[in-house]
Amino acid sequence: MMMSFPKQILMALSLLSVVSVLILTMFYLNIGPSVQPNGCIAAEALSGFNSTLYSLENPRWRSELQIEQQVKVAIPFYNNPNYTSYPLNIDMRKFVRNHREGSQYTTPKMINVYPYMFITKPEVTCTNSTKLLFVIKSAPKNKRARQAIRDTWANEESVFGIKRVFVLGRTKVYHNDVEQEIKTHKDILLIDYEDSYYMNTWKLRGALIWAGNSCTECDYVMLVDDDYYVATDLLLQQLEMTGNSNESLYMGWVNPRSFPFRSKSSKWYISSTDYPYDIYPPFVSAGSIVMSINFVRDFMFASQFTKHIVFDDVFLAIVANKMGVVPVNNKLFYTGKVEYWNRQFWNTLTAHGYSRPADLRNAWKCHILLKNNGLNTVFK
């Protein structure tokens, strides 16, 4: 015996199904409401500030932007203050200094020559007014994310003093789309290797080689993933406060104590042959790293004489430590997602987890509203 339902119930169920499909479609296509109903940030988060919130004349904001040098901890591969047992076992500080100053020195054999060609170089020109170059590590499939970044925090027309470059490895699946994007925007560095997680160190090195050779007029380079939010104008303020006090700046969220994974089932596995020490040097998380151009150029040189390791942030830290550069921890760089309606958002310089372009666009909209109107801003 079949059960019969009233016509109104059947219509309601049908409408509910349609709405459910629409919601799922909007989620997967990264479209949907432009704002959250509870606003971009709680109005009670911090009262008393208006459009002067981000002024350097505001002592609260200046205090937020202060950064402190990381305390250098014991590094496992130092056998005296200048030499390390991590190959090459040379006085890298003196070696790099002599190279930078053009002094005569004996050059050891390179053990880590960069092996990949640049298929396509971006048509990006840095000038003396270029304060910050964004080098954005991206996967070929993330076309929508790249466009959202172009429209928001890396928009050269809305933020003075910045340039942007996306770095990609080659791919067969998205080849035609990437080729068309290169022709349209001319801001992609395409490198001749198959794009994958375990190629990240090669991606990092290729990105910094291009930046160090082609954008020497800029002051700083920010290496950042394509699922990050960046408060560009606020970061520029912080770099302005830093000035030339740190010519070898290597800054971000610092992991002061991390250990190698020895289980072969781990994504982060590394053998004791490849890395025989029981701890990594303090490293800046690879998602967002700010470096002075001097540091970038020194790294380009020193990396050729440093044994390769598959994890990009660890490799960068090893080279930095061999050069005697201490990572700077920035408390306003977040490795997790900071929602734009969270009270923490107002002083966030970078945050991870913005893989949906709609979220990134909303976060940037919130940032602009906060900048113009202060912390009492709420979405209507």
TrEMBL record:
<dbReference type="GO" id="GO:0000139">
    <property type="term" value="C:Golgi membrane"/>
</dbReference>
<keyword id="KW-0735">Signal-anchor</keyword>
<protein>
    <recommendedName>
        <fullName>Hexosyltransferase</fullName>
        <ecNumber>2.4.1.-</ecNumber>
    </recommendedName>
</protein>
<keyword id="KW-1133">Transmembrane helix</keyword>
<dbReference type="Pfam" id="PF01762">
    <property type="entry name" value="Galactosyl_T"/>
</dbReference>
<dbReference type="GO" id="GO:0016758">
    <property type="term" value="F:hexosyltransferase activity"/>
</dbReference>
<dbReference type="InterPro" id="IPR002659">
    <property type="entry name" value="Glyco_trans_31"/>
</dbReference>
<keyword id="KW-0472">Membrane</keyword>
<dbReference type="InterPro" id="IPR029044">
    <property type="entry name" value="Nucleotide-diphossugar_trans"/>
</dbReference>
<dbReference type="GO" id="GO:0006493">
    <property type="term" value="P:protein O-linked glycosylation"/>
</dbReference>
<comment type="similarity">
    <text>Belongs to the glycosyltransferase 31 family.</text>
</comment>
<dbReference type="GO" id="GO:0008194">
    <property type="term" value="F:UDP-glycosyltransferase activity"/>
</dbReference>
<keyword id="KW-0808">Transferase</keyword>
<keyword id="KW-0325">Glycoprotein</keyword>
<keyword id="KW-0328">Glycosyltransferase</keyword>
<keyword id="KW-0812">Transmembrane</keyword>
<keyword id="KW-0333">Golgi apparatus</keyword>
